[in-house]
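Quick one, tokens below:
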């Protein structure tokens, strides 16, 4: 009996040591708000309940194993939650397929050399516009930085890169390397493979990014090239983001531009914003975006957004927002809507009011 007890104690000790070296975390965000948009067009206004207003609702698993010597193995699986309807995952590809982990599905290694990950993951431009986005990536479904800077507009960018016809924001079959930081400086490289026989450039993504993070100043820039499925067209993009944290205010600004080689179409987005903590649990945000199309034809749009966030706890926040969007001309069904989701077809301006709650777990 004594031998059995000693053996059981030794086994428990080994299991405890193993669990100390390996961890798996379940996490997520559930966010929903009620929104009223007042358009001046023929269809009038609309009131909706929308998921993912301050942050995209999501759920995921992430894990890490300590392999010793500073080397760790890790994985990440993350999917969109459509908690306004109970759905999960966003359709990508052509024909469209709903993926359980549409936001991230990676495995990789991290250590003194930096990190390398394989799978489905964000393009490097997100390092720039995400870090310094004026709204903090709020209202992702209508944000110019998400739709155009991060190329999450399937109708405009879906034919380019390794996402099989979905948006270009995330790339399938990709490899991403992020360097360690040297006195605040670092860089990243990423390649998305189209996996087409006979031509490695078809449906490919190639990106490079550089960043500087030191104290109050954060700067990141990225450049990318994406090819279509026949390797007959090229989409180029570059983006830069700057964030400066002062004692009483946080200043943020971004600029991006992407150009389609076949038509010379350019879509550029400039964004500027400020976060003002007015109390320990209250933050006010003001943001402005100008979205401009040129090269093939001219179009312009502006958005102005004000957000108030009240933190009920470290995990729960209530918020209210007012936004105004305008376009140079009345939006038609055949053009790229630079204020998509806010200004509707038949309108050239709109006002949006949102109140909601966000909980992280």
């Amino acid at each position: 009996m004594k031998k059995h007890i000693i053996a059981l104690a030794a086994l428990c000790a080994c299991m405890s040591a193993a669990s100390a070296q390996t961890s798996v975390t379940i996490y997520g965000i559930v966010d929903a708000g009620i929104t009223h948009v007042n358009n001046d067009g023929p269809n009038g206004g609309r009131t909706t309940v929308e998921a993912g207003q301050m942050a995209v609702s999501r759920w995921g698993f992430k894990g890490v194993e300590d392999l010793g010597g500073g080397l760790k193995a890790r994985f990440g699986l993350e999917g969109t939650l459509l908690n306004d309807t109970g759905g999960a995952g966003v359709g990508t590809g052509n024909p469209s397929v709903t993926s359980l982990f549409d936001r991230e599905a990676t495995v990789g290694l991290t250590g003194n050399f930096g990190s390398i990950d394989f799978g489905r993951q964000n393009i490097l431009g997100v390092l720039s516009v995400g870090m310094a986005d004026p709204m903090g990536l709020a209202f992702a479904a209508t944000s110019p930085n998400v739709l155009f800077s991060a190329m999450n507009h399937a109708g405009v960018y879906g034919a380019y890169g390794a996402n099989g016809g979905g948006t270009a924001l995330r790339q399938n079959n990709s490899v991403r390397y992020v360097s360690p930081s040297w006195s605040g400086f670092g860089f990243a490289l990423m390649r998305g493979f189209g996996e087409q026989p006979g031509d490695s450039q078809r449906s490919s993504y190639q990106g490079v990014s550089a960043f500087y993070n030191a104290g109050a100043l954060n700067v990141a820039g990225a450049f990318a090239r994406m090819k279509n499925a026949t390797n007959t067209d090229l989409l180029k993009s570059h983006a830069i983001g700057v964030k400066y944290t002062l004692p009483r205010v946080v200043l943020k600004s971004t600029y991006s531009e992407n150009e389609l080689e076949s038509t010379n179409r350019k879509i550029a987005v400039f964004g500027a914003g400020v976060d003002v903590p007015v109390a320990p649990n209250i933050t006010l945000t003001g943001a402005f975006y100008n979205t401009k199309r040129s090269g093939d034809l001219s179009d312009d749009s502006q958005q102005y957004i004000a957000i108030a966030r009240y933190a009920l706890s470290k995990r729960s926040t209530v918020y209210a927002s007012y936004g105004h969007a305008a376009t140079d001309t009345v939006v038609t069904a055949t053009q790229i809507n630079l204020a998509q989701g806010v200004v509707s077809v038949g309108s050239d301006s709109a006002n949006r009011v949102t109140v909601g709650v966000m909980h992280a777990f």
